[in-house]
Amino acid sequence: MKMKDSRIAANGLVLLGCGKMGSAMLEGWLARGLPPTSVWVVDPFPSEWLKAQGVHLNAELPAAPAIVLVAVKPQMMAEALPTLKAMGNGSTLFVSVAAGTPIRYFEETLGVNTPVVRAMPNTPAAISRGITAIVANDTAGEAALDEAETLLSAVGEVVRLDQESQIDAVTGVSGSGPAYVFHMIETMAAAGEAQGLPPGLSMQLAKATVAGAGALAMESDESPTQLRINVTSPNGTTQAALEVLMDEENGFPALVKRAVKAATDRSKELARG
Ligand SMILES: NC(=O)C1=CN([C@@H]2O[C@H](COP(=O)(O)OP(=O)(O)OC[C@H]3O[C@@H](n4cnc5c(N)ncnc54)[C@H](O)[C@@H]3O)[C@@H](O)[C@H]2O)C=CC1
Ligand SMILES: O=C(O)[C@@H]1CCC=N1
């Protein structure tokens, strides 16, 4: 479905919170043909970028928009969400990207018959290379999942989850994941500097290596494991590095496992309030 012909374009989209994640998605929708006049943004601190987009900004909202996309911080939710209570229990689909805020919370605040899709996107959405996992309540059902998918596929891939509980681990892998990869770039650049490279050159090498390896992993028919083996000459330089990285106790696998678990646990903790 084309965004400009959708129920979203006809009945309107309300974006509650337009910070890093909200603006990343808004940029994608506008680029895919959603008319800015179909978008109402509520944000007490609008950025200069947002002000220039031609959307309705902190204006009176339509009574029954097609979708409300909730992109405020979980900590702001209790203040922001009740202002839209009149849109609950109706035809408006609520799509939330907030980490650790369960579907139950939306049903309790807006009404039990409110269609809700919980989503976990990531910031590469800003360049339409995001991945978003979605899961719906029973009221929303299949049609609402299709509509949420139309909206979110404008900013990258969309996957559907079997159950809401999976979203904590999804947050730990892909929601927070871009930060791990950015940290990898920072760390590789610093390590290159420690081996005598100039900072600018080392950063250039690190960024291009992560971007190139990511693109190769996506485009190749070979698995990441095989791609790793392809780099590793017997008794060569990569093998020397991998012996450090793959150390069972202190290496990369144990560290990443702990990091993903910490993010997953934090997501569960946020859900408990
Ligand atoms: N940044 C990321 O990588 C990801 C963030 N998320 C989720 O997206 C949500 C937003 O995160 P960010 O965009 O990173 O945060 P952010 O702090 O950049 O954006 C939040 C926005 O909400 C606005 N806001 C504050 N109070 C408000 C209110 N009462 N009504 C309307 N807007 C209000 C703020 O002015 C700000 O622009 C969070 O719930 C987070 O869990 C999900 C996936 C990835
Ligand atoms: O750090 C956070 O809580 C949000 C959710 C996933 C990425 N950023």
From TrEMBL:
Q: Name one GO cellular component term.
A: cytoplasm
Which pathway does it serve? Amino-acid biosynthesis; L-proline biosynthesis; L-proline from L-glutamate 5-semialdehyde: step 1/1
Could you say which residues bind NADP(+) here? L16, G17, C18, G19, K20, M21, A71, V72, K73, P74
Q: Which reaction does it catalyse?
A: L-proline + NAD(+) = (S)-1-pyrroline-5-carboxylate + NADH + 2 H(+); L-proline + NADP(+) = (S)-1-pyrroline-5-carboxylate + NADPH + 2 H(+)
Its Gene Ontology biological processes?
A: L-proline biosynthetic process
> What broad class of enzyme is this?
oxidoreductase
Boundaries of every Pyrroline-5-carboxylate reductase dimerisation domain copy: 164-270
Q: Where does NADPH bind?
A: N58
Q: What is its EC number?
A: 1.5.1.2
Question: What InterPro entries has UniProt attached to this entry?
Answer: 6-PGluconate_DH-like_C_sf, NAD(P)-bd_dom_sf, P5C_Rdtase_cat_N, P5CR_dimer, Pyrroline-COOH_reductase
Task: Give all residue intervals belonging to the Pyrroline-5-carboxylate reductase catalytic N-terminal domain.
Answer: 14-100
Where does the chain cross the membrane?
none
Q: Which UniProt keywords apply?
A: Amino-acid biosynthesis, Cytoplasm, NADP, Oxidoreductase, Proline biosynthesis
**Chief subcellular site?**
cytoplasm
GO MF, one term, reads: pyrroline-5-carboxylate reductase activity
The cellular location(s) given in this protein's UniProt record come to: Cytoplasm
Its function? Catalyzes the reduction of 1-pyrroline-5-carboxylate (PCA) to L-proline.
Family stated for the protein in its record = Belongs to the pyrroline-5-carboxylate reductase family.
Annotated protein name in UniProt: Pyrroline-5-carboxylate reductase
Q: Which gene encodes it?
A: proC
